[in-house]
Design brief:
Length: about 375
């Protein structure tokens, strides 16, 4: 199996590559990136005889397709705005593919993957990805599913990289059509900071108010559960409180509309300027608590009784007691490791289907959670009767 890590020099995708080095088997693993110096640095950091590096620019599609055609599988760590370009290249190169974002651009290339006998799995990190598997585990045990509430806390700096800054701006765009809930058979668009709900995450995170966010689980779970009578699907999230305070202030003052302005003969979107500032400021690259926390709440009928299943996840602390989980890596490992595991499951033939497919239809949660546990990432489940 020859694997290409696209955008592999990024802080998250390099964790996927490290997982492949530590737990997988491959004939070749190439760290590909537009920043070839960073790709070389990442390959040196991985320190494996079968790891090399290469320059790639997915905007140059013919050249990228030629490069990727030498590989069997591509793990795609590029930004949301590049996912249409990157997926098109992966499809025409005849590779399996998997990426972190899953915001929907990938599905237009499904027939190409299918014709090549390959699978493409959009959105397989912590959320989407691990959240999908947790929901499937709970929903599959029920005869009828009434509601699914997916929640997460992503505890990381607001702008530690360009792709994270882009995600922040994207998710809170007031006009974004993809910020929806699924309710009574319909997708309903909601504004930023809609439907606040207090969620209690495992320690050290605790309680916080979370809001609806535009994540793909709303759509993928609606499809997966269309024969189980699901009435409500909501996806919420939070970042560290000071980050949420900043985003809410920017929203209240209209900055998140990203209005284009002119200053000193230069024209730019106001949020582009804010993002650029945050990436270059200490405040934008630091936070007090690092890590990731998931909370999935499913209500439905099991063995004729109304029940609630609550699933959470835990991981090693970011306090430095386990060096490889210290600081920011408690966040980046949580996101990167699931994509590394999914790549290994594809390489081992432990997947279903061809084409661009929702994660729920591709992987067995039991296989995935078994692999997570080997990395000290654990899933907890609690079931209770609803009176």
């Amino acid at each position: 199996m020859k694997i290409f890590a696209l955008g592999g020099a990024g802080k998250i995708c390099r964790e996927s590559a490290l997982d492949l080095v530590q737990f997988g088997t491959f004939d070749r693993l190439t760290i590909g990136d537009f920043n070839v110096a960073a790709a070389k640095e990442t390959a040196d950091w991985l320190n494996h005889p079968k790891v090399d590096f290469a320059f790639i620019d997915v905007k140059n599609k013919m050249e990228s397709i030629a490069i990727l055609s030498e590989y069997d599988l591509v793990i795609d760590g590029t930004t949301i705005s590049l996912n249409a370009d990157s997926t098109e290249c992966i499809a025409h190169a005849g590779c399996h593919g998997i990426n972190l974002n899953g915001f929907g651009e990938e599905y237009q290339f499904s027939e190409i993957f299918k014709s090549n006998g390959k699978v493409m799995v959009p959105g397989f990190g912590m959320t989407p990805g691990t959240t999908n598997m947790m929901a499937v585990l709970a929903c599959d045990s029920m005869e009828k599913v009434n509601s699914v509430r997916v929640s997460h806390g992503a505890y990381r700096p607001i702008a530690f990289s360009g792709s994270i800054t882009e995600t922040t701006i994207y998710e809170y765009d007031p006009k974004l059509p993809g910020r929806t809930v699924f309710e009574n058979g319909q997708f309903i668009q909601v504004p930023p900071f809609a439907r606040p709900r207090e969620i209690e995450l495992p320690q050290p995170y605790g309680k916080s108010i979370q809001y609806i966010i535009p994540h793909s689980e709303t759509f993928t779970l609606a499809k997966y559960l269309e024969n189980k009578g699901v009435e409500l699907i909501e996806v919420r999230g939070t970042w560290p409180q000071e980050n949420m305070d900043l985003i809410k202030a920017l929203y209240n003052y209209g900055f998140l509309n990203n209005t284009r302005i002119s200053l000193n003969c230069c024209e730019f979107g106001i949020m582009e300027a804010v993002g650029e500032y945050l990436q270059k400021s200490d405040k934008g690259k630091t936070t007090n608590l690092f890590g990731y926390s998931l909370h999935i709440e499913v209500e439905g009928i099991k063995n004729g009784q109304l029940i609630r299943q609550t699933l959470t996840h835990t991981h090693p602390a970011s306090d430095g007691t386990i060096p490889e989980w210290a600081g920011l890596r408690a966040y980046t490992r949580n996101v990167g490791i699931p994509m590394g595991i999914a790549a290994q499951l594809i390489a081992q033939g432990k997947y279903k289907g061809e084409g661009a497919l929702f994660p729920e239809f591709v992987f067995d949660p039991a296989n995935f959670f078994e692999e997570l546990a080997k990395r000290q990432i654990f899933i907890q489940s609690k079931e209770e009767l609803i009176n």
